[in-house]
Amino acid sequence: MDRLATAWAIFQGLLLEAIPFLLLGVTIAGLARWLVPQGAWIGRLPRHPLLAPITGALMGFALPACECGNVPVARRLLASGAPLGTAFGFLFAAPVLNPIVLASTWAAFPDQSWLLIARPLGAFLIALLLSALLVQLPEAQLIESSLLAERRLSQPLSSIGLLERGGGLIGGAIPDPQPRRIERPQLSEVLEQSSREFLDLLALLVLGCVIAALVQTWLPRSWLLAVGSAPTLSILALMLLAIVVSVCSSVDAFLALGFAAQVTPGALLAFLLLGPVVDLKLAGLFTVLLRPKAIGITAIVACLGVLLIGQWVNLWQL
Amino acid sequence: MIRALLLVLWGWMVVWSVHSGRLDLLLAGGFHKLVSASGVALLIAGVMVGMKSRKRQESVSWPWLASAGMAVLVLLVPPHPSFSDLAASRPQGLPEPPDLAFVLPPQQRTLTEWVRLLRSQPDPDLVDGNPLNISGFVLKRGDEPAQIARLTVRCCLADATPAGLPVSWPVDAKPKVNQWLKIEGHMKVETRQGQRVAVVVPETITPIQRPERPLEP
Fold first, then answer.
1. pLDDT in single tens digits along all 217 residues of chain B
2. Cα Rg for chain A, rounded, in angstroms?
3. Do B155 and A16 touch (CB under 8 A)?
4. Whether B156 and A221 lie within 8 Å, measured CB to CB
5. Nearest neighbour of A203 by CB, restricted to B3, B27, B66
6. Which chain B residues are within 8 Å of A195, Cβ to Cβ?
7. What is the complex's ipTM, to 2 decimals?
8. Pairing of strands B147-152, B161-166
9. Of B101, B87, B99, whose CA–CA distance to A258 is shortest?
10. What residues of chain A lie within 8 A of the CB of B14, using their CB?
């Protein structure tokens, strides 16, 4: 009974800590839609396979939020027809490449300069890797169906067919040669859409927090840290810990500080790299963006990428 | 209209969590204002959505209702974590000590500051005989003797990390796991498992209520 009460308290802690960031993300996504009407700037984003994710990753500096807040913004980018690479670069790198997370990492590890470079660099590489792989999939197999339908409406007819857009017309339609005038949506319309989006994401966040609280209550953390000095095992253990703990990226460096002395440098970096991309709290949120197959690929590739980076760091540092 | 009610419910849940003081039990202090602001923002958003969609019928998805059920549960069932249970499965680990821990007189050091001091200055003889006045909960890990401990938190209860001190309990003392105690006494060096360690020797032990802010930064 004590353990259930503890799990209930951890659930409340995780949820109450994440709600402000989720709300911030939804608000920024809504404001972006209202202030910068659809298409006005999306068309200017680079579509180059390398430049697109780099642009997305750098956009993190405009949104100092953790990974929960980035999901609604990435969804808005995809719905507005942004290049896939930009949206994925933002989704996977921005939780680390933002001023708050970089400052908290520096505050937690001021004497480990290698970590201050390795964390953003590693996050950037993982985001590039994930973007490069995910864009190989056809959009229909990659993006969640309702989001894909929304995205189709934002894409020019020159790039997709009427049938793909699902507009009810098959063939024969000629795109209007006149450029469409983009109108700013009404604030009430933005409020309606944002409130729906918030409630959708909140339901998934609740589910993620329940799972994270249950798993971390019944999985003793000391077991994971017991393998701290073994190079590969310590990386795997800390990756599992990052997935289970599910704390937001703006404070995970302070958590890592608590066990930094007990684990290998590669394991420490693995913890700081994997949590912002893959954790139990995020598992539900990703379903509003990606299809299950794409979520599976993201999780597996991110884990393998982080494991390789961790191994390399251990070879270099140990 | 249902959407507005749900937003107000969530806003109320967040604001209630702040004002009932339960946030002190769940989150690090740095997050309290942010959480409070988000609760107020949700209440305002709920009222605005309600005013715009007063007469409109709208479909409600079951995940919204299921999550709203959780919000009601959070309102009705306050958190009662077992600090000892939480701490027992986690290794001890604290950041580098702030300078303050070294300059404070021994009686004014909190339990966490004592742990930081002993970790940064492993020679126990330096604190031998120092008076102390600390409070914490009784932590029991497996077969080890009971300690007096506190939880430190950087984010929320999910990352809580225990900081504990070994205690040389009086023969007649029967410390109950999770019980909060105030201990006045002094430090003494003992050899435990072949190592010389600083141990709390209580002179008075007073059971106390859990403090309003039991988590330490």
1. 888 999 999 999 999 999 998 888 898 888 899 899 999 999 999 999 888 876 667 777 888 999 999 999 999 999 988 888 888 777 666 555 555 555 678 888 889 888 888 887 778 888 888 999 999 999 988 788 889 999 888 778 877 888 889 999 998 888 888 899 999 999 999 888 888 889 999 999 999 998 888 888 7
2. 20
3. no
4. no
5. B66
6. 3, 7, 45, 49
7. 0.88
8. antiparallel
9. B87
10. 16, 19
